[in-house]
């Protein structure tokens, strides 16, 4: 009887620790059931080790209802061709959270439609920095057509969707020679066409 009692205690402890491993797995990519069954079939200790080795799930930031309402209204206005009104909606949405990749992307598109390259590019960069990764849409969305043809956009893309990190690069004015070298590099990489290269070259030399 004592042996049976001891075995029951071991089984009960095994189950409790397996459930605990599963509970920890809920907040990780491994999930509850995987962590639980690994603990049951191998051992709770191994289950704990594997569960803690699993990456944590990315936390999902909740969007406030007011912000979501503005985004939905902004999207409707885009479909109606009301660019300025849509810009107002998305800019207001950013007052709830400036880290909003979708809103920044939509603003980049809207400003591109207005041929405002500065605001379009700034919002586009912010959308990438905030986690916008739909590169197929970036390359094909009609609204970004104007922005995609700018040198800033092409340089940004050629640099791996990153801004220049060196303070000297971003603050020190480039000489004509450096600008021409940069243009030539973009031409060689296929970022600029021959005609675009010649046009930019004329601007530098004028």
Structure summary:
By secondary structure, the chain is mainly α.
How many helix segments?
13
Extract low-pLDDT stretches.
167-171
Oligomer: single chain
Q: What share of the residues lie within helices?
A: 55-70%
The N- and C-terminal alpha carbons lie at a distance of 99 Å
Determine the CATH topology of the domain at 65-143: Serine Threonine Protein Phosphatase 5, Tetratricopeptide repeat
| Residue share in β-strands | under 5%
CATH architecture of the domain at 65-143: Alpha Horseshoe
Number of strands: 0
Structural class by SSE content: mainly alpha
- What is the CATH homology-level superfamily of the domain at 65-143? Tetratricopeptide repeat domain
Run of helices and strands: HHHHHHHHHHHHH
Classified by CATH, the class of the domain at 65-143 is Mainly Alpha
Task: Give the overall shape, derived from the CA principal axes.
Answer: elongated
Integer-rounded radius of gyration = 27 Å
Main sheet attributes: strand count, strand direction, barrel closure: none
User: On the 0-100 scale, what is the average pLDDT?
Assistant: 84
């Amino acid at each position: 009887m004592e042996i049976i009692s001891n075995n029951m205690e071991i089984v009960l402890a095994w189950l409790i620790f397996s459930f605990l491993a599963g509970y920890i797995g809920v907040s990780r990519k491994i999930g509850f059931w995987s962590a639980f069954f690994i603990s049951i079939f191998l051992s709770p200790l191994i289950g704990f080790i594997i569960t803690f080795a699993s990456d944590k799930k990315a936390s999902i930031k909740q969007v406030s209802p007011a912000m979501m309402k503005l985004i939905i209204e902004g999207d409707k206005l885009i479909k109606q061709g009301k660019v300025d009104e849509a810009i107002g909606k998305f800019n207001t949405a950013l007052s709830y959270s400036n880290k909003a990749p979708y809103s920044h992307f939509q603003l980049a598109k809207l400003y591109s439609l207005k041929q405002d390259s500065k605001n379009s590019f700034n919002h586009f960069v912010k959308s990438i920095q905030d986690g916008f990764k739909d590169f197929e849409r970036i390359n094909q969305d009609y609204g970004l057509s104007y922005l995609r043809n700018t040198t800033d956009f092409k340089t940004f893309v050629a640099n791996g969707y990153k801004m220049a990190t060196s303070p000297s690069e971003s603050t020190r004015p480039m000489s004509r020679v450096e600008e021409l070298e940069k243009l030539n590099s973009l031409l060689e990489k296929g970022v600029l066409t021959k005609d675009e290269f010649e046009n930019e070259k004329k601007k530098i030399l004028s």
